[in-house]
Amino acid sequence: MMNAKTLVAGGMLAATLLAGASAAWPTRALAADPVVWKLDWSLAPTRGESVLVKEYVERVNKRTAGKFRIDASYGGALGINQADGLRALKSGGIDMSLLYAGYLFRDLPELGFAYATAAAETREQVRKIAPVLAEINAEGYSAWDVTTVANVMIPTFNWHLMCKTPVGDLKTLRTKKMRANEKSFLDAMALLKVQAQIVPQAETYLALQTGVIDCTIYPVGIAKTISLHEVAKSASRVLLHSAMPIAIGVGNAKWASLDPAVRQVVTEEGLWLWQRSLDVALDAGAMDALDKATLDTTDIKLLPPFPAEERKMFNDAIIKIWEEQAAKVGKRAPAWRERVLKAMQ
Questions:
Q1: Count of domains in the chain?
Q2: Most exposed: 54, 151, 204, 250, by fewest CB within 10 Å?
């Protein structure tokens, strides 16, 4: 069985495996009966990450020639809560699952503070830390007897404050109710005296529509994927979005039961997915183009960015909370944080 860390390693190993992705099918005979695994990919099918995952699934299914098939469901179609991904794998309720540290604080809090969303200020810093984040994912999920068969880097979007009425500075934001996407960002907003609450992505539209929240932090470039343009009519850029990669996890026992020839294909194509998602995630021009495409086709009013000194305050709060919470949760979180910071230099 291939070590989980090997699945996400970069450099020469990744290049070698990717080069072999088109090689002839291994000579070992596959089982006569087809094996079908269900993948719960809870992001909307129109998200860029979802498009890449669809291609990954197609590549695996094509190479396994009908002997093995991944049957992927998108956008929460299987009814599994994003916070329950690890439990669903452990119970056998699903074969493969999207795993994102920001959703899994209940079951794996230390991984949630290995990195703080938007801690990196530049795409070059994100490029440096990406391989480390992928390695940490594999190490973290292994505590739940889960093998990380692939990672997907979340794009470095231009992260905006999207509101029902114009908000372009911290003073105004403090008079509003804001949605945070995960706990570290929630705590950072508390440090800035901003009233925030965690709202699942799938519930954000309704929360804005009904007044539960007035604003959400979200990339304008993908606002249409969950129809935010219908309820949040103004946007102001605040931060560069960067986050822990999304993992595709499989229970260790399930992974070990798979024919080695199939494991090889899933691994090789997982490395393809990782490299491809990195290329997309770090393309600044593509991120700007996404913003423009949304603004050109909606009524969203783009305000000037938050003042530079306030954007710095956001980043400083994120870094401070990251240190405090990593120390508080303990276990491997502080050491993981130090590894990321070292790579960021």
A1: 2
A2: 54
